[in-house]
Amino acid sequence: VAATLASRVVGSNRFRVPLMVGSAGLAVVMYLGLGLVVVGAANLVWWLVTRRTAAPAGARAAPAPSRNSRRLPVLRSLTVLVLALAVIVTGYGFVRAQEVTVTRTTLAFDTLPANFDGFTIALLTDLHVGATTRGSFLPGLVDEVNAAAPDLVVIAGDLVDGSVADVGAPIAGLTRLAAPFGVVVTTGNHDLLTDPTWIGYLRSLGLTVLTNDGLRLRRGTQSLTILGINDRDGSGTAAPDLRLAFKRVGSPAGCGDAFCIVAAHQPAQALDDDGLAGRLGVALQLSGHTHGGQLWPYGYATRLEQPMLSGVAILGGVTVVTSRGAGTWGPPVRVGSDPEVPLLTLRRA
């Protein structure tokens, strides 16, 4: 939260290093707090055991300093150890957060048109370009994606954590993405909340932004449909509307015999409206949002909100691919959830 607010107040290009160090310190505090809870529990158990065994029944209890003579030094040592571990784990997570890898997955569908057998999609999510983003992050990421040579690049939300004025210049680097079928972008909750002018700016760069809209991709005489719906946290005209997207692409009744892909920021959107996506015939949904938990054990809390953290799952009859994301939100740290760019290869079963 502090990093997001800072990006709006001081801009993404000012005080980047202090903000990165300060926000990483939040992770140290979190892990220190978890460790101190464990130390406190150990202290309580030790105190209870010592109290019961300090003296036989009917005998005079030992003086308090005697009972605590061993416990307190051990607890002090454990506290120092917890602090050291919190710093080490955060440092490890900081390094891991900078190492984005391309993860390859093959998905088979019997409804995939034969001409699209072997079609590849690079899924970019949760870049969160903002106050704590290194200047080399986005250019390096673009190089990684281009080296994978996908047919299509899909950016499934949470691209930014700052205004167009602050981070518009580095975002313009996305125009270097090279794919025969172009780059498709849909919105995430941070994009909607940060600056509503982002949609127009991204379109001015030549990127295809799908806000409850879609398009058809053609190979020879065959085609597949890709739709992008707004994030489920959007409201009013920014609310997600899958039926509207189908209507705009010329298929108001749903997919029919066509092969349909939906880019929706949150994996839970496959289950929204009583599983509307599955009932309309959507075969594949591309999502992010969860960061795979980002900081262990925060993923357990994320699972209370989302049906999956990462990977591939069938939700409401739809194959859902959820990326751990390439960036970070808040602390630029990842523990137990390495950043990734899934490269999906579609095969005809």
Short overview:
The chain has 349 residues and is α/β, with parallel strands linked by helices. Helix content is 37%, strand content 20%.
Approximate helicity band: 25-40%
**Structural class computed from helices and strand pairing:** alpha/beta
Number of strands: 14
- Spatial extent as radius of gyration: 25 Å
Identify low-pLDDT runs: 6-12
Order of helices and strands: HHHHEEEHEEHEHHEEEHEHEHEEE
> Helix count?
11
| Assembly of the depicted chains | single chain
For the residues shown, what is the average pLDDT?
Answer: 87
Q: How would you write the strand order of the largest sheet?
A: 1-14-2-4-6-7
Distance between the termini: 45 Å
The biggest beta sheet, please?
6 strands, mixed
Shape: elongated
Question: Which strand-content bin applies to the residues?
Answer: 15-25%
Give structural attributes.
349 residues; alpha/beta; six-stranded mixed β-sheet; 11 helices; elongated
